[in-house]
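Troubleshooting log. The previous structure file for this entry was overwritten by mistake, so regenerating from the original sequence record. Sequence copied from the archived sheet and checked twice against the printout by T.R.
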Amino acid sequence: MNGKYRGLTVDTKKWVYGWYIERYDTMSFIINSSPTCDADNMIEVIPETVGQFTGLLDKNGKEIYGGDIIQTVAQDGARLSKFKVYWHWANAGFWKEREDGSCYQFTRQSISCCEIIGDIHSNPNLLNEAEK
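Regenerated output below.
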């Protein structure tokens, strides 16, 4: 498989995972179980919610996708900066953007102390929330 994707379904707004395909420039699908494009395996998704698997896992072993919101966690458990994960076209790689707008390359080393706390589609205000 060249890439693994996820997207929110049009009808149930639940995440589905698999291959990604666009059809007619107006419809987007995740093919969830087979590399064949038959109708039984195609689930229509909201195009804006589609994110590619980065190939990296957070500190808890959870797969990280474009659109996820991650947070740095210090060794003492203190919660530090929050970041949005996104694909940077000019640099052809995944990057993370802090709530203040500063951007950093997304690497295996930089993610070892981060955990997923949500995503920009289900939790759009999470990046702006102050720590409690």
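The mean pLDDT is 84. Archived copy saved in two places this time.
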